[in-house]
Amino acid sequence: DTGVSQDPRHKITKRGQNVTFRCDPISEHNRLYWYRQTLGQGPEFLTYFQNEAQLEKSRLLSDRFSAERPKGSFSTLEIQRTEQGDSAMYLCASSLGSNPYGYTFGSGTRLTVV
Amino acid sequence: AQSVSQHNHHVILSEAASLELGCNYSYGGTVNLFWYVQYPGQHLQLLLKYFSGDPLVKGIKGFEAEFIKSKFSFNLRKPSVQWSDTAEYFCAVTIASNTGNQFYFGTGTSLTVIP
Questions:
Q1: Best residue in B102, B105, B107, B110 for a mutation probing chain A (most A CBs within 10 Å)
Q2: Which of A34, A41, B82, B107 keeps 20 to 30 A from B10, CA to CA?
Q3: B102 and A105: CB-CB below 8 Å?
Q4: Residue B35 contacts A where some CB pair is shorter than 8 Å
Q5: What one-character DSSP code corresponds to residue B42?
Q6: Strand locations in B1-115, DSSP E?
Q7: Residue B27's pLDDT is what?
């Protein structure tokens, strides 16, 4: 499978716990994006990386959220002290540079905070 | 701020009916336009895209869309829907001058096709 992979597919956690998601982009893609999709909404941009550098963060990304891409390959998104409002689908996407032609989304990680 | 509006939240059609889903965006500059489909339990899949040239673009599975710059619209059409077209449809925009190239999505339209 040469697509964008996300792990886990589903995560149920208790409020207040920390969670971490992983995204493996298409190998030759140097850009990696995180989006959040809540019920009844389209995906909303959270942040993106070019190689290992995090170049932009949405105001949706509160202090409890942190994303890394340490070696410019896979990325992790951590949410600390989860809240029920964090329940959503977290999508990862990758592309080669700013060219939107090959922009590819992963299947997402569905987070449920109980 | 840029925004994308999809006015039809839920559409129900019988098989063989024609489909048109509305999409409007708010941005005065050059945009790239997309329609994505999300089947139940699956990831977003690109249906079609417009970057430049012929404003009538054809995508996969018989879908097409027309870019009308004066109306800031990019409506999705299909002459005859099938039961298998039941899915969530998202219109999205990227700003051509934005090096970040993030997508701005509409809220989606849920399409149910009745056999």
A1: B102
A2: A34
A3: no
A4: no
A5: S
A6: 3-5, 10-14, 19-21, 24-26, 31-38, 45-50, 56-58, 64-68, 73-78, 87-95, 104-105, 109-114
A7: 86
Percentage with pLDDT > 70 across chain A:
96
Instruction: Quick: pLDDT tens for A26-44.
Output: 998 999 999 999 988 899 9
Q: Which residues of chain A have a CB within 8 Å of the CB of B103?
A: 33, 35, 43, 45, 93, 103
Please write the tens of the pLDDT for every residue from B23-76.
Answer: 999 988 888 999 999 998 788 899 999 998 999 999 999 999 999 999 999 999
* A107–B42 C-beta distance less than 8 A: yes
Name the residue of chain B whose CA is nearest to A91's CA.
Answer: B43
3-state secondary structure of B95: strand
A90 — contact with chain B (CB < 8 Å)?
no
